Amino acid sequence: MHLDYSTDTVDDAQRFAYWSDVVCQHLIPAKSVVPDRQHFNARFRLRSLGKLALAEMSSPRHVWERDAQHLRSGPNEDFMLSLMVSGHGVLSQSGREVVQRNGDIVLYDAARPFSFDLAPESTLLVRIPRRQLLCRFPEAHNLTAMHLAEGHPTARLLGHMIREAAKLELSGSEAMEASLAGSMLDMLSAVLQVQSDGAEAALSSHAQLYQRTREYIAAHLDDCELDVEQMAAAQHVSARTLARVFAEYGSTPIQHLWKQRLEASHAALSEGRVRQVTQAAFQHGFSDLSHFCRVFKKAYGVTPQTLLRRH
């Protein structure tokens, strides 16, 4: 199957609606929004490749949105693989957002809501039946909306395969098309494995950084000047990187610092290791006694003086 659609032969007022219907019919039903309907000119080519469908699209900027209503009214479980040849896009799915530029490969899932803001001078799209991909890589749905194996040789090879498949003329040879589709899916599976391994390594690296920073904070609670920049410098990372790592654990470096200071001062008071409230405050990084008393009572429901008298 080879199809070729262009808005050149359609009246200006109907071009966007025509093109939107074509893409929804052959790829994934979704809502499409375009900033400029009056000057919309696009082209869409589609060919079958075994169980896959390979499309080439060129258009002005537009936004595809698939929400819960689409999932109910038009269920679709296909995956879409996008290779940006020229142009850019921003894909959002599953709480992640990725900017796609020339050469980038991203995956998205029609079974879940997504938004794709596209300005593709030329993009190649592969529609993949869910079972065809999951039988090779069962965790594929966890790797949507991210650069797939960015810079890795397997990603470059997959991109080359997709580009060449778009040009290839197989003269209706179904066996050849099926073989090529299988090879492409095998290569995609290898790319997803690289991506998965990299994500696990990054997670492990983040966990180590998180633990090292917690230990550093615990050792420097008495430093009232301690801030994020100092914590990050001690770990040889940027403050932004440190903030992202703590965000994975639902906190920030400063929130963790103040929580540890409060817990340490509470332990010192309740265990009778200090004789004055000022000791509990100043030994654990509080430079303002009145502030210490306020936040302590808010956290524990009693004043530090009351706790000191009890013990």
Instruction: Please estimate the helix content.
Output: 40-55%
**Number of DSSP strands?**
9
Q: Please name the CATH architecture of the largest domain.
A: Sandwich
Structural class comes to alpha+beta
- Mean pLDDT figure: 91
Strand content: 15-25%
- Alpha carbon gyration radius: 28 Å
Head-to-tail CA distance between termini: 83 Å
Overall description:
With 311 residues, the chain is an alpha+beta fold. It folds into 2 domains: 200 residues, Jelly Rolls, CATH 2.60.120; 91 residues, Orthogonal Bundle (Arc Repressor Mutant, subunit A), CATH 1.10.10.60. Helix content is 46%, strand content 22%. It is built from 11 helices and 9 strands. Strands 1, 2, 3, 4, 5, 6, 7, 8 and 9 form a 9-stranded antiparallel β-sheet that branches. Strand 6 and strand 7 form a beta hairpin. Helix 4 packs antiparallel against helix 5. The radius of gyration is 28 Å and the shape is elongated.
Describe the SSE topology.
Blueprint: E1 2-6, H1 15-26, E2 31-33, E3 43-49, E4 52-58, E5 62-66, H2 68-73, E6 79-93, E7 96-100, E8 105-109, E9 114-128, H3 130-134, H4 153-167, H5 174-219, H6 228-234, H7 239-247, H8 253-270, H9 277-282, H10 289-300, H11 304-310
Antiparallel strand pairs: 1-3, 2-5, 3-4, 4-9, 5-9, 6-7, 6-8, 6-9
